[in-house]
Write a structure and sequence with these properties.
GO biological process, one term: nuclear-transcribed mRNA catabolic process, nonsense-mediated decay
GO molecular function: telomerase RNA binding; telomeric DNA binding
Distance between the termini: 39 Å
Number of strands: 0
Largest sheet: none
Organism: Peronospora belbahrii
Order of helices and strands: HHHHHHHHHHHHHHH
Pfam family, one: EST1
GO cellular component, one term: telomerase holoenzyme complex
Strand content: under 5%
Helix content: 55-70%
Oligomer: single chain
Length: 384
């Protein structure tokens, strides 16, 4: 990997030496040519990693020169996105495939175990270096924005780079050798991306993915909905939401719980909250299915039976019990502000969707960030 300077105090070279439009286009065409060579090589000989890595380094070097010297032009060409798949994502997927291949056998075979450890170490090093590369891009775009105050292309590029850094941190933690994973660093980076561009739905989708790692269904549903409820929705979030509801449907439906005393224990409160949130997700899945004219395989009745390709009946009895349990939880002080916000926003989004109504989408930064400013103060993956 190419070594990059990640000192955010370093000014872009554009502040020192302007680049003509012709020079910037020539530099960009160099990137395009290298990208084509890399794609052709991988198509013809996917196992030729040595030559592929040389081309990747050259492509990254060319991108750095373009970004450092002509930031706005690079941002207008979405250089940070153009590099992600050929230089990083494909290698990430290759590492993950190899790790999965050797993980099981590593338990019993010493040679495989050593190979697994070496590949895992190489993967961590790759992710660290890739993160350094995107930190540099983010800081260059951020420095340009600080000097010029405004610019749609650099803002989008800064946001995209921040999301990519979050992805790299997520992969680094997911494939670490730690017994207990901690995705706080990735979560903070996705929130930073939201602070740069609140109207972009991608960071919310990624926050939902983090929530699924710790089985926080309510948080995941909320972020998938928020990912769609933006002026730049991340459309894949709808498929992810459908998959989450289907997985929830396949689990046995949690039974309602009633407190046996007027002063329930912490254990009883926790049990009621867990039961309530699972049943709420089941209800949200039904509302989600109602938004489709043909129904959805994610839909189910309150009893948990499959309702394939038919529009589900809205379970009024389940709704009544959920309302009652929410009042009980609020009275017991179990539901915090962050969780309550997530439940309310999700209810509004899915209810409007089930009725075929379009929610107004905020198109200005102040409106788009109204939920985020509050959510940033009191939310976290562990809230739900």
């Amino acid at each position: 990997m190419v070594s990059v300077v990640t000192n955010s105090s370093t000014k872009p070279a554009s502040a020192l030496r302007p680049l003509s439009t012709m020079d910037s286009r020539r530099a960009y065409m160099e990137m395009v040519t290298l990208d084509k060579k890399l794609r052709d090589l991988l198509r013809a000989n996917p196992l030729n990693t040595q030559d592929a890595n040389v081309l990747r380094r050259r492509l990254m070097d060319a991108a750095l020169r373009l970004v450092d010297i002509h930031t706005t032009f690079a941002a207008s060409k979405e250089v940070e996105l153009a590099l992600w798949k050929p230089c990083f994502y494909r290698r990430i997927e290759d590492f993950r495939r190899r790790i999965r291949k050797y993980a099981a056998a590593a338990q019993t075979d010493r040679n495989v175990r050593e190979h697994f450890a070496r590949v895992s170490s190489e993967f961590q090093q790759f992710l660290t270096e890739a993160s350094g590369f995107y930190v540099h891009l983010r800081d260059v775009f951020a420095s340009w924005l600080q000097q010029n105050q405004l610019g749609a292309a650099p803002t989008n590029s800064s946001d995209a780079a921040a999301s990519d850094i979050g992805d790299l941190a997520r992969y680094r933690e997911l494939h670490s050798q730690k017994a207990k994973k901690n995705f706080a660093a990735a979560e903070a980076l996705y929130h930073r991306a939201l602070a740069v561009l609140p109207e972009n739905g991608n960071p919310h989708n990624q926050l939902a993915v983090l929530a699924t790692y710790v089985e926080a269904e309510t948080v995941a549903v909320y972020h998938y909905c928020r990912s769609l409820l933006t002026s730049q929705p991340f459309t894949t979030a709808e498929e992810n939401l459908a998959l989450l509801f289907e997985r929830s449907r396949q689990r046995p439906l949690a039974a309602p719980i009633t407190f046996t005393t007027s002063t329930p224990s912490a254990k009883e409160k926790s049990a009621l909250l867990k039961s309530y949130l699972h049943r709420l997700t089941r209800m949200h899945g039904i509302l989600f299915a109602l938004s489709s004219p043909r129904g959805s395989p994610t839909a189910s009745s309150a009893s948990g039976t499959s309702n394939q390709k038919t529009v589900p009946m809205y379970p009024r009895d389940m709704e009544a019990v959920l309302f009652k349990d929410m009042r009980t939880l609020l009275h017991a002080g179990v539901v915090g502000d962050a969780l309550l916000l997530k439940v309310v926003v999700t209810n509004i989004f899915l209810h409007h969707s089930s009725l075929g109504l379009a929610l107004p989408i905020c198109t200005n930064r102040g409106c788009s960030s109204s939920f985020d400013s509050y959510d940033h103060l009191c939310s976290g993956v562990s809230s739900g």
